Amino acid sequence: MSVENWSEDILVVELQDDPAFSDDVTAVIDQVDGHKDVDVVLNLAGVNYLNSSNIAKLLKLRKKLHARKRRLVLCGIDTNVWGLFLVTGLDNVFDFADNVAMGLAGVQLDPE
């Protein structure tokens, strides 16, 4: 996992497929717990599949950030993974961007 502190209130995280995915998202959740005012941009370009445990971790991260009025943006989504978000209806739950640059722009220009 690559974590970059883009600014003092934005984390950019590059994720990979399991088995690293679960541990990496747990580490991001721990970082969010330590930094109350942080937005997160997750780059999923290296993720080719998600299982139910992965989705549960993403939802947990979203819930923590949403409760603090902070944003989670998923970007670089593979076609197969995007299909999973569509089928499950999670395309209406998460915020998405085409790439990291667009995700950062969205977080910086459109704070909730």
Gist of the model:
The chain has four helices and five strands.
Kindly report the oligomeric state of this protein. single chain
Q: What's the CATH class label? A: Alpha Beta
Give the termini distance in whole angstroms.
Answer: 27 Å
User: Helix segment count?
Assistant: 4
Structural class: alpha/beta
Main sheet record: 5 strands, mixed
User: Nearest-angstrom radius of gyration?
Assistant: 13 Å
Element order, helices and strands? Answer: EEHEHEHEH
Number of domains: 1
CATH topology: Transcription Regulator spoIIAA
CATH architecture: 2-Layer Sandwich
Report the β-strand fraction as a percent range.
25-35%
- Number of β-strand runs: 5
The average pLDDT is 89
Provide tags for this entry.
five-stranded mixed sheet, globular, alpha/beta, 112 residues
Descriptive report:
- By secondary structure, the chain is of the alpha/beta class.
- Helix 1 packs parallel to helix 2.
- It has one domain: STAS domain (Transcription Regulator spoIIAA, 2-Layer Sandwich).
- The mean pLDDT is 89.
- The longest helix is centred in the middle third of the chain and has 16 residues.
- The chain is globular, with a radius of gyration of 13 Å.
- A 5-stranded mixed β-sheet has the order 1-2-3-4-5, with helices on both faces.
- The protein is built from 4 helices and 5 strands; from the N terminus they run ββαβαβαβα.
Describe the SSE topology.
Layout lengths: L1 E6 L2 E7 L3 H15 L4 E8 L5 H16 L4 E4 L3 H10 L6 E3 L2 H10 L3
Parallel strand pairs: 2-3, 3-4, 4-5
Antiparallel strand pairs: 1-2
